[in-house]
Design a protein that fits this description.
Periplasmic_pilus_chap, about 140 residues, cell projection, single chain, mainly beta, 6-stranded mixed sheet
Length: about 140
């Protein structure tokens, strides 16, 4: 097969497969560092899509084991609201709070996972919808 035919076949395959729709969930800030006695902060979410999107927010304790990230469920830090629906073009604030009464010793590391949830009613045959997961480091230091 010639190079020109290979390119034409690739383009045809892309057209047949359908369009890919980019995700449009944006967050800020991309890291939270809370020092000496600070127990709460916020993260802003924006839906830059033309349709509403559902979002789930979870917090995990974050450690490294043999050089690999390890996420474990925790109740020491919570995010509120844990699930939210963002209207098109809207924004929302997620509050992140350390609820543990135990004093911070050194540094405690967590990951705030913000997931765009799939919506079965928005499925379109031949299209790919890319769902976004933001993984935001959260650190509490003494």
């Amino acid at each position: 097969m010639t190079f020109t035919r290979l390119i034409a076949a690739s383009l045809a395959a892309c057209l047949i497969a359908g369009a890919a729709q980019a995700a449009s969930l944006r967050v800020s800030p991309i890291t939270l560092d809370l020092k000496m006695g600070a127990s709460a902060s916020t993260v802003r979410l924006w839906n830059e899509d033309r349709t509403a999107t559902n979002v789930q927010v979870r917090v995990f304790r974050w450690t490294k084991v043999n050089g690999k990230d390890r996420l474990e469920p925790t109740t020491d830090v919570v995010a509120s609201p844990p699930i939210t629906k963002l209207a098109p073009g809207s924004e929302n604030v997620i509050r992140v709070v350390r609820v543990s009464k135990k004093p911070v010793s050194g540094t405690e590391a967590y990951r705030l996972l913000i997931d765009e949830l799939p919506d079965a009613s928005k499925r379109v045959p031949g299209q790919v919808k890319v769902l976004v997961r933001h993984s935001i480091p959260v650190r509490f230091t003494e």
